[in-house]
Amino acid sequence: MKLETLKSIISKKKNKTEFAIITNLSTGESEIFEKEKPLSKELEKYSNQINEFFKSKKNGVIDGTEIFIETYIKPIKVIIVGAVHIAQYLVEFAKSLNFEISIIDPRGYFASEQRFPEMKIINKWPDEAFKQIETNENTALIALTHDPKIDDPALQHALNKKFYYVGALGSKKTHANRCERLKEAGFSSNQINSIHGPIGIKLGGRSAPEIALSIIAQLVAETYKK
Amino acid sequence: MKNSFDEKILEEAHDWVKVNQKVVLATVIQTWGSSPRPTGSRMIVNEKGDFSGSVSGGCVESAVVRESMGLLKENKSHKKIEFKVSNESAWEVGLACGGEITVYLEQIN
Q1: Do A1 and B108 touch (CB under 8 A)?
Q2: Last residue of a domain, which of A72, A94, A110?
Q3: Rounded-to-integer distance, Cα A50 and Cα A136, Å
Q4: More confident residue, A33 or A38
Q5: CA-nearest residue of chain B to A1?
Q6: What is the model's pLDDT at position B90?
Q7: Whether residue A141 sits in one domain with residue A192
Q8: How many CB pairs under 8 A join A and B?
Q9: pLDDT at A51 over 80
Q10: What is the pLDDT of residue B1?
Q11: Which one of A2, A7, A96 has the shortest CB-CB distance to B5?
Protein backbone atom coordinates (compact mmCIF):
# COMPACT_ATOMS: atom_id res chain seq x y z
CA MET A 1 0.00 0.00 0.00
CA LYS A 2 1.24 3.44 -0.87
CA LEU A 3 1.89 5.76 2.06
CA GLU A 4 -0.29 8.31 0.28
CA THR A 5 -3.23 5.85 0.29
CA LEU A 6 -2.67 5.07 3.97
CA LYS A 7 -2.72 8.78 4.84
CA SER A 8 -5.87 9.30 2.85
CA ILE A 9 -7.60 6.35 4.60
CA ILE A 10 -6.68 7.74 8.02
CA SER A 11 -8.06 11.17 7.15
CA LYS A 12 -11.28 9.65 5.78
CA LYS A 13 -11.71 7.68 9.00
CA LYS A 14 -11.17 10.87 10.98
CA ASN A 15 -13.77 12.73 8.92
CA LYS A 16 -16.24 9.87 9.48
CA THR A 17 -16.94 9.28 5.81
CA GLU A 18 -18.10 6.08 4.15
CA PHE A 19 -15.57 4.48 1.79
CA ALA A 20 -13.90 1.22 0.83
CA ILE A 21 -10.33 0.14 0.19
CA ILE A 22 -9.96 -2.00 -2.90
CA THR A 23 -6.81 -4.04 -3.27
CA ASN A 24 -5.68 -5.99 -6.28
CA LEU A 25 -4.00 -8.93 -4.59
CA SER A 26 -1.97 -9.90 -7.64
CA THR A 27 -0.52 -6.48 -8.52
CA GLY A 28 -0.48 -5.14 -4.94
CA GLU A 29 -2.15 -1.91 -6.07
CA SER A 30 -4.83 -0.42 -3.85
CA GLU A 31 -7.25 2.44 -4.24
CA ILE A 32 -10.03 4.15 -2.33
CA PHE A 33 -13.61 3.75 -3.47
CA GLU A 34 -16.35 6.25 -2.66
CA LYS A 35 -19.96 6.40 -3.77
CA GLU A 36 -19.63 9.21 -6.29
CA LYS A 37 -16.05 8.58 -7.32
CA PRO A 38 -15.38 6.75 -10.58
CA LEU A 39 -13.30 3.57 -10.38
CA SER A 40 -9.94 3.24 -12.08
CA LYS A 41 -9.99 1.62 -15.54
CA GLU A 42 -8.54 -1.57 -14.18
CA LEU A 43 -11.37 -1.98 -11.66
CA GLU A 44 -14.25 -0.74 -13.82
CA LYS A 45 -15.24 -4.24 -14.87
CA TYR A 46 -15.85 -5.19 -11.23
CA SER A 47 -18.02 -2.16 -10.60
CA ASN A 48 -21.22 -4.18 -9.96
CA GLN A 49 -19.59 -6.52 -7.45
CA ILE A 50 -17.80 -3.65 -5.72
CA ASN A 51 -21.05 -1.74 -5.32
CA GLU A 52 -22.69 -4.90 -3.99
CA PHE A 53 -20.02 -5.28 -1.27
CA PHE A 54 -20.23 -1.57 -0.49
CA LYS A 55 -24.00 -1.63 -0.13
CA SER A 56 -24.04 -4.69 2.11
CA LYS A 57 -21.04 -3.30 4.06
CA LYS A 58 -19.08 -6.50 3.67
CA ASN A 59 -15.36 -7.26 3.55
CA GLY A 60 -13.99 -9.95 1.28
CA VAL A 61 -12.55 -11.16 -2.00
CA ILE A 62 -14.81 -10.97 -5.06
CA ASP A 63 -15.49 -14.57 -6.14
CA GLY A 64 -13.12 -15.86 -8.77
CA THR A 65 -10.95 -12.72 -8.71
CA GLU A 66 -7.97 -11.29 -6.91
CA ILE A 67 -9.86 -8.20 -5.76
CA PHE A 68 -10.22 -7.62 -2.03
CA ILE A 69 -12.67 -5.06 -0.66
CA GLU A 70 -12.76 -3.62 2.81
CA THR A 71 -15.64 -1.28 3.60
CA TYR A 72 -15.64 1.44 6.20
CA ILE A 73 -19.03 2.43 7.47
CA LYS A 74 -20.13 5.62 9.12
CA PRO A 75 -19.80 5.54 12.88
CA ILE A 76 -22.92 5.47 14.99
CA LYS A 77 -23.92 8.81 16.47
CA VAL A 78 -24.01 8.81 20.23
CA ILE A 79 -25.30 11.81 22.10
CA ILE A 80 -24.37 12.25 25.71
CA VAL A 81 -26.44 14.71 27.71
CA GLY A 82 -24.48 15.90 30.70
CA ALA A 83 -20.77 16.68 30.60
CA VAL A 84 -20.34 14.99 33.96
CA HIS A 85 -17.64 12.80 35.51
CA ILE A 86 -19.08 9.58 34.03
CA ALA A 87 -19.06 11.20 30.59
CA GLN A 88 -15.32 11.76 30.86
CA TYR A 89 -14.78 8.00 31.29
CA LEU A 90 -17.33 7.19 28.58
CA VAL A 91 -15.38 9.27 26.10
CA GLU A 92 -12.19 7.49 27.14
CA PHE A 93 -13.67 3.98 26.71
CA ALA A 94 -15.28 4.91 23.41
CA LYS A 95 -11.94 5.83 21.82
CA SER A 96 -11.41 2.33 20.46
CA LEU A 97 -15.02 2.01 19.34
CA ASN A 98 -16.65 3.25 16.17
CA PHE A 99 -18.92 5.89 17.72
CA GLU A 100 -19.19 9.56 16.89
CA ILE A 101 -19.88 11.27 20.19
CA SER A 102 -21.47 14.68 20.82
CA ILE A 103 -21.89 16.06 24.30
CA ILE A 104 -24.74 18.39 25.18
CA ASP A 105 -24.73 20.42 28.38
CA PRO A 106 -26.12 23.92 28.86
CA ARG A 107 -23.94 24.38 31.95
CA GLY A 108 -20.76 26.00 30.67
CA TYR A 109 -18.66 25.03 33.66
CA PHE A 110 -19.31 21.34 32.92
CA ALA A 111 -19.04 21.49 29.16
CA SER A 112 -15.56 22.95 29.01
CA GLU A 113 -12.89 22.07 26.50
CA GLN A 114 -10.45 21.55 29.32
CA ARG A 115 -12.62 18.70 30.64
CA PHE A 116 -13.29 17.25 27.18
CA PRO A 117 -10.37 17.97 24.90
CA GLU A 118 -11.03 17.46 21.17
CA MET A 119 -14.68 16.56 21.74
CA LYS A 120 -17.73 17.97 20.05
CA ILE A 121 -19.44 19.85 22.86
CA ILE A 122 -22.70 21.73 22.41
CA ASN A 123 -23.13 24.24 25.18
CA LYS A 124 -26.91 24.64 24.74
CA TRP A 125 -30.18 23.33 26.13
CA PRO A 126 -31.18 20.04 24.42
CA ASP A 127 -34.03 21.55 22.36
CA GLU A 128 -31.62 24.06 20.84
CA ALA A 129 -28.76 21.59 20.55
CA PHE A 130 -30.83 19.04 18.60
CA LYS A 131 -31.47 21.67 15.94
CA GLN A 132 -27.83 21.33 14.92
CA ILE A 133 -27.51 17.52 15.02
CA GLU A 134 -29.19 15.26 12.52
CA THR A 135 -30.68 12.33 14.38
CA ASN A 136 -32.63 9.20 13.40
CA GLU A 137 -33.25 5.59 14.41
CA ASN A 138 -29.51 4.91 14.16
CA THR A 139 -28.71 7.40 16.91
CA ALA A 140 -28.14 6.61 20.59
CA LEU A 141 -28.78 8.81 23.62
CA ILE A 142 -27.12 8.60 27.01
CA ALA A 143 -28.73 10.98 29.50
CA LEU A 144 -26.53 11.56 32.52
CA THR A 145 -27.59 14.75 34.31
CA HIS A 146 -30.57 13.21 36.17
CA ASP A 147 -31.89 16.75 36.16
CA PRO A 148 -35.38 16.67 34.55
CA LYS A 149 -34.90 20.17 33.11
CA ILE A 150 -31.99 18.92 31.01
CA ASP A 151 -32.61 15.16 30.56
CA ASP A 152 -36.35 15.17 29.86
CA PRO A 153 -36.36 17.26 26.68
CA ALA A 154 -33.52 15.10 25.32
CA LEU A 155 -35.34 11.89 26.20
CA GLN A 156 -38.51 13.19 24.54
CA HIS A 157 -36.56 14.02 21.39
CA ALA A 158 -34.95 10.56 21.38
CA LEU A 159 -38.28 8.76 21.82
CA ASN A 160 -39.95 10.84 19.11
CA LYS A 161 -37.09 10.17 16.69
CA LYS A 162 -37.03 6.44 17.61
CA PHE A 163 -33.37 6.31 18.67
CA TYR A 164 -32.22 2.66 18.79
CA TYR A 165 -30.74 3.13 22.24
CA VAL A 166 -31.96 5.45 24.97
CA GLY A 167 -30.43 5.20 28.41
CA ALA A 168 -30.93 7.43 31.43
CA LEU A 169 -28.91 7.59 34.61
CA GLY A 170 -30.66 7.63 37.96
CA SER A 171 -31.84 5.37 40.75
CA LYS A 172 -34.96 3.23 40.42
CA LYS A 173 -36.91 5.97 42.19
CA THR A 174 -35.56 8.72 39.94
CA HIS A 175 -36.41 6.57 36.95
CA ALA A 176 -39.95 5.85 38.19
CA ASN A 177 -40.55 9.60 38.54
CA ARG A 178 -39.11 10.17 35.10
CA CYS A 179 -41.43 7.55 33.59
CA GLU A 180 -44.38 9.22 35.28
CA ARG A 181 -43.47 12.61 33.76
CA LEU A 182 -43.09 11.07 30.30
CA LYS A 183 -46.47 9.40 30.68
CA GLU A 184 -48.03 12.74 31.54
CA ALA A 185 -46.33 14.22 28.50
CA GLY A 186 -48.23 11.70 26.38
CA PHE A 187 -45.66 8.96 25.70
CA SER A 188 -46.93 5.38 25.44
CA SER A 189 -45.80 2.71 27.86
CA ASN A 190 -43.97 0.94 25.01
CA GLN A 191 -41.97 4.06 24.36
CA ILE A 192 -41.25 4.61 28.04
CA ASN A 193 -40.29 0.97 28.59
CA SER A 194 -37.75 1.19 25.77
CA ILE A 195 -35.63 3.49 27.92
CA HIS A 196 -32.78 1.71 29.67
CA GLY A 197 -33.18 2.98 33.19
CA PRO A 198 -31.41 2.68 35.49
CA ILE A 199 -28.82 2.76 32.72
CA GLY A 200 -26.15 0.11 32.08
CA ILE A 201 -25.72 -3.61 32.55
CA LYS A 202 -25.30 -4.87 36.12
CA LEU A 203 -21.61 -5.05 36.92
CA GLY A 204 -21.88 -4.25 40.60
CA GLY A 205 -19.56 -1.24 40.67
CA ARG A 206 -20.71 2.25 41.53
CA SER A 207 -17.71 4.40 40.68
CA ALA A 208 -17.70 6.70 37.65
CA PRO A 209 -15.43 4.49 35.47
CA GLU A 210 -17.39 1.36 36.40
CA ILE A 211 -20.72 2.97 35.54
CA ALA A 212 -19.22 4.24 32.28
CA LEU A 213 -18.06 0.71 31.46
CA SER A 214 -21.52 -0.73 32.19
CA ILE A 215 -23.11 1.88 29.90
CA ILE A 216 -20.67 1.25 27.07
CA ALA A 217 -21.25 -2.52 27.40
CA GLN A 218 -25.00 -2.02 27.12
CA LEU A 219 -24.61 0.33 24.18
CA VAL A 220 -22.46 -2.16 22.25
CA ALA A 221 -24.88 -5.01 23.04
CA GLU A 222 -27.84 -2.96 21.79
CA THR A 223 -25.90 -1.91 18.71
CA TYR A 224 -25.47 -5.53 17.65
CA LYS A 225 -29.10 -6.40 18.46
CA LYS A 226 -30.34 -4.05 15.81
CA MET B 1 -24.52 -4.60 9.56
CA LYS B 2 -23.35 -2.49 12.45
CA ASN B 3 -19.79 -2.18 13.53
CA SER B 4 -18.94 -0.70 16.86
CA PHE B 5 -15.20 -1.28 16.93
CA ASP B 6 -12.39 0.80 15.54
CA GLU B 7 -8.96 -0.69 15.99
CA LYS B 8 -6.39 1.98 15.24
CA ILE B 9 -3.90 -0.27 13.42
CA LEU B 10 -3.63 1.84 10.28
CA GLU B 11 -3.06 4.94 12.40
CA GLU B 12 -0.34 3.09 14.28
CA ALA B 13 1.21 1.97 10.97
CA HIS B 14 1.44 5.61 9.97
CA ASP B 15 3.10 6.48 13.30
CA TRP B 16 5.70 3.77 12.67
CA VAL B 17 6.37 5.02 9.14
CA LYS B 18 6.80 8.55 10.47
CA VAL B 19 9.73 7.40 12.59
CA ASN B 20 11.35 5.79 9.55
CA GLN B 21 10.41 2.21 10.19
CA LYS B 22 9.71 -0.22 7.40
CA VAL B 23 6.22 -1.55 7.92
CA VAL B 24 4.32 -4.57 6.61
CA LEU B 25 0.55 -4.50 6.87
CA ALA B 26 -1.05 -7.94 7.29
CA THR B 27 -4.78 -8.29 6.60
CA VAL B 28 -7.12 -11.28 6.91
CA ILE B 29 -8.70 -11.45 3.45
CA GLN B 30 -10.53 -14.78 3.59
CA THR B 31 -11.70 -17.18 6.27
CA TRP B 32 -13.23 -20.67 6.28
CA GLY B 33 -14.64 -22.59 9.21
CA SER B 34 -14.16 -21.33 12.73
CA SER B 35 -11.43 -18.77 12.25
CA PRO B 36 -10.68 -16.65 15.30
CA ARG B 37 -10.78 -13.22 13.67
CA PRO B 38 -13.01 -11.85 10.91
CA THR B 39 -12.02 -10.72 7.42
CA GLY B 40 -10.44 -7.28 7.57
CA SER B 41 -8.57 -7.92 10.85
CA ARG B 42 -5.13 -6.42 10.77
CA MET B 43 -1.67 -6.42 12.24
CA ILE B 44 1.53 -4.55 11.45
CA VAL B 45 5.13 -5.74 11.63
CA ASN B 46 8.39 -3.82 11.38
CA GLU B 47 11.83 -5.02 10.28
CA LYS B 48 12.84 -5.80 13.88
CA GLY B 49 9.84 -8.08 14.29
CA ASP B 50 7.87 -5.77 16.58
CA PHE B 51 4.19 -6.18 15.90
CA SER B 52 0.81 -4.74 16.86
CA GLY B 53 -2.75 -5.86 16.20
CA SER B 54 -3.73 -9.43 15.33
CA VAL B 55 -4.89 -11.68 12.51
CA SER B 56 -5.80 -14.64 14.72
CA GLY B 57 -6.12 -15.11 18.45
CA GLY B 58 -2.38 -15.71 18.71
CA CYS B 59 -2.22 -18.88 16.60
CA VAL B 60 -0.39 -17.68 13.52
CA GLU B 61 1.05 -14.32 14.55
CA SER B 62 4.60 -15.67 14.90
CA ALA B 63 4.53 -16.97 11.33
CA VAL B 64 3.12 -13.67 10.07
CA VAL B 65 5.97 -11.83 11.79
CA ARG B 66 8.54 -14.16 10.23
CA GLU B 67 7.00 -13.89 6.75
CA SER B 68 6.72 -10.10 7.05
CA MET B 69 10.35 -9.74 8.03
CA GLY B 70 11.22 -11.91 5.04
CA LEU B 71 9.15 -9.69 2.75
CA LEU B 72 11.06 -6.63 3.98
CA LYS B 73 14.43 -8.36 3.63
CA GLU B 74 13.72 -9.37 0.04
CA ASN B 75 12.07 -5.99 -0.52
CA LYS B 76 8.98 -7.55 -2.08
CA SER B 77 5.80 -5.50 -2.23
CA HIS B 78 3.17 -8.11 -1.33
CA LYS B 79 2.40 -11.75 -0.69
CA LYS B 80 -0.49 -14.07 0.23
CA ILE B 81 -0.19 -16.77 2.88
CA GLU B 82 -2.71 -19.50 3.68
CA PHE B 83 -2.98 -21.04 7.11
CA LYS B 84 -4.84 -24.31 7.44
CA VAL B 85 -5.98 -26.65 10.18
CA SER B 86 -3.02 -27.37 12.42
CA ASN B 87 -1.70 -30.90 12.70
CA GLU B 88 -0.73 -32.63 15.89
CA SER B 89 2.89 -31.51 15.86
CA ALA B 90 3.21 -29.07 18.72
CA TRP B 91 5.53 -26.62 16.99
CA GLU B 92 3.63 -26.48 13.76
CA VAL B 93 2.00 -23.13 13.17
CA GLY B 94 -1.69 -23.37 12.43
CA LEU B 95 -5.13 -22.69 13.73
CA ALA B 96 -5.96 -24.97 16.63
CA CYS B 97 -9.64 -24.18 16.15
CA GLY B 98 -9.70 -26.00 12.84
CA GLY B 99 -10.31 -22.96 10.68
CA GLU B 100 -8.50 -21.64 7.64
CA ILE B 101 -7.46 -18.11 6.89
CA THR B 102 -5.68 -16.28 4.11
CA VAL B 103 -3.52 -13.36 5.15
CA TYR B 104 -2.32 -10.73 2.70
CA LEU B 105 0.98 -9.03 3.45
CA GLU B 106 1.89 -5.71 1.87
CA GLN B 107 4.69 -3.28 2.40
CA ILE B 108 3.83 0.35 3.02
CA ASN B 109 5.93 2.43 0.68
Answers
A1: yes
A2: A72
A3: 27
A4: A33
A5: B108
A6: 41
A7: yes
A8: 76
A9: yes
A10: 45
A11: A96
Instruction: Give yes or no for a contact between A69 and A43, defined as CB atoms under 8 angstroms apart.
Output: no
Any CB–CB contact under 8 A between B74 and chain A?
no
Contact B1 A7 (CB under 8 A): no
Same domain as A168, residue A115: yes
Q: Is the pLDDT assigned to residue B56 strictly greater than 90?
A: no
Do A122 and A109 belong together in one domain? yes
Please answer yes or no on whether A6 and B10 come within 8 Å at the CB atom: yes
> Can you give the pTM of this predicted structure?
0.81
User: Does A1 sit within 8 Å of B5, measured CB to CB?
Assistant: no
Residues 6+ apart with CB under 8 A from A70: A20, A21, A23, A59, B27, B39, B40
Quote the ipTM score: 0.87
A49 and A101 inside one domain: no
Task: Compare CB distances from A99 to B4, B11, B106 and report the shortest one's residue.
Answer: B4
Across the interface, whether the CB atoms of B29 and A223 are under 8 A apart is answered: no
Residues in chain B with CB shorter than 8 Å from the CB of A226 are: 2
Final residue in a domain of this structure, among A48, A72, A96 = A72
DSSP string, B28-94: EEEEESS-SS-TT-EEEEETT--EEE-SSSSSSHHHHHHHHHHHHHTT-SEEEEEE-B--S-TT--S
Average pLDDT score over residue span B61-83? 95
**Partner B, chain A 171-210, Cβ-Cβ below 8 Å:** none
Q: How far apart are the first and last CA of chain A?
A: 34
A6 touching chain B per CB within 8 A: yes
Q: Do A120 and A23 lie in a common domain? A: no
Domain of A203? 76-225
Structural domains counted in chain A: 2
In the sheet where A30-33 sits, what is the strand order?
A: A30-33, A19-24, A67-72, A60-61
Domain CATH number, residue A126: 3.40.50.720
Residues A93 and A184 in one domain: yes
Whether the per-residue pLDDT at A196 is higher than 70: the answer is: yes
Average pLDDT over residues A69-85: 93
Compute the average pLDDT of residues A13-23: 90
**A80 and A13 belong to one structural domain:** no
Question: Is there a single domain that holds both residue A171 and residue A184?
Answer: yes
Confidence of residue B88 (pLDDT cuts 50, 70, 90): very low
Q: Given A6, A58, A59, which is nearest B13 (Cβ)?
A: A6
